[in-house]
Amino acid sequence: MARVTRPLRLAVALHDVEPATYERCALIRDWLDDHGVDRVTLLVIPAPDLHPFHDRRPEMVDWLADRRRFGDAIAQHGFQHRQTQPGAPGRQLLAGWQGGRAAEFVGLDEAETRRAVRAGRRVLRLAGVEPRGFVAPAYAYTNELRTTLATHFEWWASLSHVVHDGGRRATLNPALCLGTTSVTKRLLSPLVVRAGAGIAGDVLRLDLHPADLDHPRHIGAVEAVLRGARRRVAVTYDELACGA
């Protein structure tokens, strides 16, 4: 029996979708369309500064509904995307390197973690965009967060894996990320992303942030990656989690 060969895939995730970045995220989404990327995973922050996103920007609800109708997936990106409690010194140091004050779940106990996850999901549900998956801000996961996610979401994504089936299965798919929070990250991350795309396996995961548009070298790196990925089929994280 002939073996069925699965096409190479491209999974783009657009982080930090919220009222303050809405126009820029819409611009990035159109830019990706121009490059032939017809499926993207949009990571929505439910309540920046504790205000539900749909109260601040009701038009975002219509935009997200349109994007989902055209094939995009929506994932929950924390609750407020801001750390409110310090973690243990070693964990705090790592969280600071990963994403500064965005490491929302570092320092929270199990009850606080569960409340934040549920509150974020409730905000998205009220906006009519209930998600199937979750990505932690700054990719900063804790044991308490993983325990909560196993009973609330079909999948979640770390920097290196896409985890599904309630945490029972994990697929190795490293994400290529551009950094803007330090001079070193701004200088090196475009080179790392270009190199990583060249050796990517079956799935090429590419992370984008609204701030990437402020840096010409970041834009150049993304365009180079997308040109090199023309033969790949764009998929969402929802599709990755179900084996598409």
UniProtKB/TrEMBL annotation:
One of its GO terms (biological process) is carbohydrate metabolic process. Signal peptide: none annotated. InterPro entries: DUF2334 (IPR018763), Glyco_hydro/deAcase_b/a-brl (IPR011330). Coiled coil: none annotated. This is DUF2334 domain-containing protein. It comes from Paraconexibacter algicola.
